[in-house]
UniProtKB/TrEMBL annotation, chain A:
One of its GO terms (biological process) is immune system process. Component of the proteasome, a multicatalytic proteinase complex which is characterized by its ability to cleave peptides with Arg, Phe, Tyr, Leu, and Glu adjacent to the leaving group at neutral or slightly basic pH. The proteasome has an ATP-dependent proteolytic activity. The active site is at 20 (nucleophile). The lineage of its organism: Eukaryota, Metazoa, Chordata, Craniata, Vertebrata. Belongs to the peptidase T1B family. The keyword Hydrolase applies. PANTHER family: METALLOPROTEASE TLDD (PTHR32194), PROTEASOME SUBUNIT BETA (PTHR32194:SF12). The 26S proteasome consists of a 20S proteasome core and two 19S regulatory subunits. The 20S proteasome core is composed of 28 subunits that are arranged in four stacked rings, resulting in a barrel-shaped structure. The two end rings are each formed by seven alpha subunits, and the two central rings are each formed by seven beta subunits. The catalytic chamber with the active sites is on the inside of the barrel. Component of the immunoproteasome, where it displaces the equivalent housekeeping subunit PSMB6. It is found in: Cytoplasm; Nucleus. Pfam families: Proteasome. It comes from Oncorhynchus mykiss (Rainbow trout). This is Proteasome subunit beta. Keywords: Cytoplasm, Hydrolase, Immunity, Nucleus, Protease, Proteasome, Threonine protease, Zymogen. The keyword Transport does not apply.
Length: 218, 283
């Protein structure tokens, strides 16, 4: 790492990344998505309260990570495409459709883009579903983590995940994971955003820094 | 019923004074000249039957198919100009394929029929092209949506159906299909004219709706309808093309297996003979 001799702050020159921890998990009847809120440009935090859980449709959200501009643009494009698609077919889009649209963009422009979106939502055919679209692949998983902070919590999620968790268990699982990642990853922090999606709709929630669970802390 | 356009019928871009586009109507006449195709929806699937007239004994059996596969789960039965129909089946296949590529799942049948209908309609707008001279019936089966049936005609509209028929005998076929809706099964004792003890005649009416039939039962009925509407006098021999898609095929559209087809044809021929026999009795 080079010594910073420059008199300019980092945010003037560094690419804006959503350093990030993002997570999504399925339960019977829906999904829970969670993210932190830090946006960094090098060592500068340019936004400490950004909501990285982006709406793709009424009951389909995606979690953004990687380059902020790339991720937001993909989400906006897919939001538009899903709007048109749902009107054409005359019903709510499937989560798989949303994930495929994201995947198609991520794969086609994989050399130019640097973003990873986790797509999660509820539809009447498949219930709650979580899809991973890293690097242009498409894979459905019971839960997924992403972003720079995810590396610190793979062990935790692998150990703590149980099948058939209830909605409240899932929400607690997500909050715990985010809290641990945010405390260890320099590029993640701020507040935790939660979105719970089920048949009735999507419910957004924000948990402030001082309300997050605490673990081993010197 | 033929009305002469007299100058307003030369191109699809011209309306007649009474608001008709004659070219489209002429295209529909082309469909009416072709042999019959029917599609019927039942409880757990869709069955297609086509009366394929054999114009020459030199034709290979099974050639010039009139039922196409559009994607794994959709079948398409056509009537009218076969070349136009083949071209449209390619259009339908592309639509289904692009949809799957973009959205990651099977195209819903309503959407597919609307997209192909839109394409057919486009050819009714310009003088540089002629409308497609074929109608077709699309059918599919899906775990969540159940069986679906749509028909598209040369004007470019698509309709959803329980049962529909296209081609020269479509009126007769429609009558037969409507009869299927309410079918009365008389108790065997009554059919034989036996009077039960106590002089009470027990009559058991069983209404079996088309919607409650399974594909296996419906295949036989479809074969029977085609045999009924086939005109032995005007047209010579014909080949019966049968296909189905439903729970029995796990949602995959395919031509019915040889043994099922033979059983259905046997049932159809036997039923026709029975009706001939009962006619003779009345004399």
């Amino acid at each position: 790492k080079m010594l910073d001799d420059s008199l300019e702050p980092g945010w003037l020159s560094e690419e804006v990344k959503t350093g990030t921890t993002i997570i999504a998990i399925e339960f019977d009847g829906g999904v829970v998505l969670g993210s932190d809120s830090r946006v960094s440009a090098g060592e500068t935090v340019v936004n400490r309260v950004m909501n990285k859980l982006s709406l793709l449709h009424d009951k389909i959200y995606c979690a953004l990570s990687g380059s902020a501009a790339d991720a937001q643009t993909i989400a906006e494009m897919v939001n538009y495409q899903l709007d048109v698609h749902s009107i054409e077919v005359g019903e709510d889009p499937q989560v798989r459709s949303a994930a495929t649209l994201v995947k198609n963009i991520s794969y086609k422009y994989k050399e130019e883009l640097s973003a990873h979106l986790i797509v999660a939502g509820w539809d009447k055919r498949g219930g709650g579903q979580v899809y991973v679209t890293l690097n242009g692949l498409l894979s459905r998983q019971p839960f997924a983590v992403g972003g720079s902070g995810s590396s610190y919590v793979y062990g935790f999620v692998d150990a703590e995940y149980r099948k058939a968790m209830s909605k409240e268990d899932c929400q607690q699982f997500v909050v715990n994971t985010l809290s641990l990642a945010m405390s260890r990853d320099g590029s993640s922090g701020g507040v935790a955003y939660l979105v719970t999606i089920d048949e009735k709709g999507a419910e957004e929630k924000c948990i402030l820094g001082n309300e997050l669970p605490t673990f081993y802390d010197q | 019923m033929s009305s002469i356009g007299t100058g307003y019928d030369l191109s699809a871009s011209t309306f007649s004074p009474d608001g008709r586009v004659f070219q489209v109507e002429y295209a529909m006449k082309a469909v009416e000249n072709s042999s019959t195709a029917i599609g019927i929806r039942c409880k757990d699937g869709v069955v297609f039957g086509v009366e394929k007239l054999v114009l020459s004994k030199l034709y290979e059996q099974g050639s010039n198919k009139r039922i196409f596969n559009v994607d794994r789960h959709v079948g398409m039965a056509v009537a009218g100009l076969l070349a136009d129909a083949r071209s449209l089946s390619e259009v339908a296949r592309e639509e289904a394929s692009n949809f799957r590529s973009n959205y990651g799942h099977n195209i819903p049948l309503k959407h597919l029929s609307e997209r192909v209908a839109m394409y057919v309609h486009a050819y009714t707008l310009y003088s540089a092209v002629r409308p497609f001279g074929c109608s077709f019936i699309l059918g599919s089966y899906d775990q969540d949506d159940g069986p679906q049936l749509y028909m598209v005609d040369p004007s470019g509209i698509s309709y959803g159906y329980w049962g529909c028929a296209i081609g020269k005998a479509k009126q007769a076929a429609k009558t037969e299909i409507e009869k299927l809706q309410v079918r009365i099964l008389l108790e065997p004792s009554l059919r034989q004219g036996k009077i039960l003890l106590n002089c009470l005649i027990c009559v058991c009416y069983c209404y079996q709706q088309m919607k409650d039939m399974t594909c296996r039962e419906l295949v036989k009925e479809v074969a029977k309808i085609i045999y009924i509407v086939h005109d032995e006098v005007k047209d010579k021999s014909f080949e019966l093309e049968l296909s189905w898609v439903g729970e029995v095929t796990n949602g995959k559209h395919e031509l019915v297996p040889k043994d099922v087809r033979e059983e259905a044809e046997k049932y159809a021929k036997d039923s026709l003979e029975e009706e001939d026999d009962s006619d003779e009795d009345n004399m």
